[in-house]
Specification:
Number of domains: 2
Largest sheet: 3 strands, antiparallel
Structural class: mainly alpha
Shape: globular
Number of strands: 5
Helix content: 55-70%
Radius of gyration: 25 Å
Distance between the termini: 15 Å
């Protein structure tokens, strides 16, 4: 695998290919959780327990056991995971890197999820008034009608947006500053660019390492306590997702990543959870291939 130093040394040609072959994508999902602190009840609790004010908080679930709202919250969390698994890190808590070859699949998937999200919002809004009435009985004296927004206000608390931004070249500064300062900024951004690129590639290796280790444990004959490990199809699905990332998101043309991807793609071709459950020899051979791959992974302080 290219080291950080090697990436920086070959930085100039990489920058051009990265900026033209990828983009940044930002995802924003807003969900009303229906949770609110009750300051009055919190004060009562501290007084009853003879504690100082502020040492305990009572957080109310305004719509306890509301299936429609619970489904929305879980759906939003799942979408964030899909976004994370389909992209690479670039900025802290900001837009993530999306290679151009993955754009159409990503856009189609997110557009479908966006439509489903707003459909679920409509279902929740339709059930909202009945859920509020039911909550009055559930909450008893903790119920406060003022804490419940009307349907129009409530709808505004849900949002699902995703947008794309071009990835600027390291020397793309549109600033009216002196030449010396401009050169300094370009150097700083070049270092930052190289660092972020290295981090994005290392993220793929880390995902591979974690997935291979999980598979290796599940394919073991026995666990430490003598039990036979359970094999989950979701881990095999995750393995295929990582192999896809290694193929489409190898932005530095890392030869080791290319060779590892081809080797593992061949090893996992036609293999799934059901196949290894029913064939002890296939299970053993697959684990051996996985363990060999783990040993040959680059050292990234996993």
């Amino acid at each position: 695998m290219n080291s950080v130093a090697q990436i920086e040394m070959n930085f100039a040609p990489v920058v051009q290919s990265i900026s033209s072959a990828s983009m940044l994508v930002g995802l924003g999902i807003g969900v009303w959780t229906g949770r609110k602190q009750d300051k009055g009840a919190s004060k009562e609790v501290t007084q009853i327990k003879q504690a100082e004010d502020g040492t305990a908080k009572v957080i109310k679930s305004l719509l306890w056991n509301c299936e429609e709202l619970d489904a929305l919250i879980k759906f939003a969390a799942n979408v964030r995971n899909i976004h994370y698994n389909s992209t690479l890190p670039w900025t802290d808590m900001g837009p993530r890197l999306l290679p151009t070859p993955k754009y159409f699949a990503y856009h189609k998937n997110m557009s479908g999820l966006q439509a489903e999200f707003y459909r679920m919002v409509d279902v929740f809004i339709s059930a909202y008034d009945l859920e509020v009435a039911a909550s009055q009985a559930k909450l008893g004296d903790l119920f406060d009608v003022r804490e419940y927004p009307n349907a129009e206000e409530l709808r505004k608390k849900f949002s699902f947006t995703f947008n794309y931004l071009p990835l600027p070249d390291a020397g793309d500064w549109r600033l009216d500053i002196n030449t010396e300062a401009l050169a300094s900024l370009r150097d700083q951004y070049k270092d930052h660019y190289a660092s972020q690129l290295t981090g994005a590639m290392n993220d793929i290796w880390k995902r591979l390492y974690e997935t291979l280790n999980t598979l290796s444990r599940q394919l073991s004959d026995k666990t430490e306590d003598g039990k036979t490990p359970r094999i989950f199809a979701s881990v095999f699905d995750r393995m295929q997702e990582v192999l896809d990332l290694m193929e489409t998101c190898n932005m530095t043309n890392d030869m080791q990543m290319q060779l590892m991807q081809r080797k593992l793609a061949a090893a996992f071709r036609g293999i799934d959870a059901e196949a290894v459950k029913d064939d002890a020899y296939l299970r053993r051979d697959t684990k051996q291939a996985i363990d060999a791959a783990i040993k040959s992974l680059p050292s990234l302080d996993f």
